[in-house]
Amino acid sequence: MKTVLFHVGMPKCATTTIQDFLTKQGTWLEERGFSYKKHPDDPTERQGNAAQLADYAMTGTPAQLLDHLDFFLNCDGDVVLSSEMLFALGRGNGFETIQQEVLRRGFDLRVIVYLKRQDLWIESDYRQHVKDANLWDGTFADLLALRRSKHTLDYHFLLTSWAKQVGHARMRVVALNPSQDEDYAIDSFLGLLGLRRPVDVSGGKRRNKSPSASAAEAAREVKRRLIASGISPGEVQQVIRAFLKVADGVSPRIKGESLLSPVARRELLTAYASSNAALSRDFLKGKPAFDDPEPEAEADWVSPEARVPMVLAGVIARSLLQGQDKEAEIEPEREVSFLERIKTLLHR
After folding, report:
1. Span of 33-42, 265-274, 309-318 with lowest mean pLDDT
2. Which residues contact 167 (CB under 8 A, 6 or more apart)?
3. What is the mean pLDDT of the segment spanning 69-97?
4. Are 71 and 39 in contact (CB under 8 A)?
5. Are 283 and 166 a contacting pair, CB within 8 Å?
6. Could you give the C-alpha distances from 293 to 149, 177, 214, 303, in angstroms and in order?
7. pLDDT tier at 116 (50, 70, 90 boundaries)?
8. For residue 259, which of 153, 114, 128 has the smallest C-alpha distance?
9. C-alpha separations of 304 from 77, 227, 247 in Å
10. Over the stretch 135-177, which tens digit does the pLDDT of each residue have?
11. What is the 3-state secondary structure (H, E, C) of the chain?
C-alpha cells in the first residue's frame, strides 16, 4: 500500500534542514519511490512543499484543500509532504479532512513529529519571533508565558491530540538532542522512509540558525523602536536581519549565553518532567526523550538584557569602522563612550 508521510514539525526542530535536503535530493528520492514535489501555484518560499496545503486546511474552502491535495496524490509511489504549518492541525479535528481523503484514495498515512527539549525549544522560538516579519516585540518571559498557557511545551498533550485523530500506530516521533551528530535529523528522517543517506552526500549544513541570546535581545530592542515608528513588518524584518548579521558577530561569547538562567531552566524542565515521561512511555517505546541539561553555574549566567548595551555599542562601532582597516581595534575609552550613549537611549 502506498503511504503519505506528513512531516509536520514541530517548528524550530530541524524542519528547514530536512526540507532543504528533500528538495536537493528530489530526483534521488523519486528513483526510490518517493515523491517530494511542490504545487506550481504554491507561492511560499522555504516552508516545505505543504505550506499552502496547511493554509487551505486552516483558512480555505474544502474544495481548495482537496484540489490542492489531489496534485500530490496523483503519483505512483509514496508521498512526502512537509511543513511545520501542518503542526497546528493536530488540535481538535483540523487534520480530519486531509486524512479522510488520503485514506479514501487508497493510501495509508504517517505523521512525523520532531521534538526538542522544552528549554532549548522556547529559546529557539523566541529568537525566531525576533527575526520574523511580525509585530512581536514582547519579552522572552512574555513568550514563555504564552506558550505555557497554550500547552505548546506539553508535548505529550500535543501528540495525544494528534493520536486521537490518526491513531498511535501512525505516529512517528523523533527527539532531537545536542549530543547527536550534525546529520542526525536527516538520517533519522530517511530511516523513517526506510532509506539510508548515500555515503557521498552529506546531510547539509544546519539551516535557519538562531542568533545568540545577546544579539537576539538587542535586536528585539531595535525591533520595538522600529515597530513604534510605523514601518511595515516586511521592512522591520529586513532591518532586523541585517542588524543580526552584524550583532551576532560582535556579541560576547561567554559562559551563560542563554535566555534562561540555570534556576529557570531547571524549574521549566521540572514542570514538564511528567509530560516527558508520558511522552517516552506512549510514543518512544520507553526510551527517554531528552538528554539531561549540562550542569550550569548560576554565577556564570548574565541576563541578555544586561548585555544589550554592549551589543549595540559593538554594532555602532563596527558601522563606524566600515571602510577603515578591518584589523583596527576599538579603543576602550571609545567603547565605553558608545556604551554610555546606548544606555542613555535605552532608558529614555
Report:
1. 309-318
2. none
3. 95
4. yes
5. no
6. 24, 10, 21, 19
7. very high
8. 128
9. 50, 21, 13
10. 888 999 999 999 999 999 999 999 999 999 999 999 999 999 9
11. CCEEEEECCCCCCCHHHHHHHHHHCHHHHHHCCEECCCCCCCCCCCCCCCHHHHHHHHHCCHHHHHHHHHHHHCCCCEEEEECHHHHHHHCCCCCHHHHHHHHHCCCEEEEEEEEECHHHHHHHHHHHHHHCCCCCCCCHHHHHHHHHHCCCCCHHHHHHHHHHHHCHHHEEEEEECCCCCCCHHHHHHHHHCCCCCCCCCCCCCCCCCCCCHHHHHHHHHHHHHHHHHCCCHHHHHHHHHHHHHHHHHHCCCCCCCCCCCHHHHHHHHHHCHHHHHHHHHHHCCCCCCCCCCCCCCHHHCCCHHHHHHHHHHHHHHHHHCCCCCCCCCCCHHHHHHHHHHHHHHHCC
* Whole-number percent of the chain with pLDDT over 70: 89
Helix, coil or strand: residue 143: helix
The fold adopted by the segment(s) 3-134+152-192 is Rossmann fold (3.40.50)
Per this entry, what is the length of the chain? 348
Is pLDDT at 217 greater than 80 in this prediction? yes
| The three cell numbers locating residue 131 | 527575526
**φ and ψ at 4, to 5 degrees?**
-105, 120
Structural domain boundaries in the chain: 3-134+152-192, 213-252+303-346
Find cell 542526525 and name the residue: 184
What is the rounded distance in angstroms from the CA atom of residue 310 to the CA atom of residue 306? 8
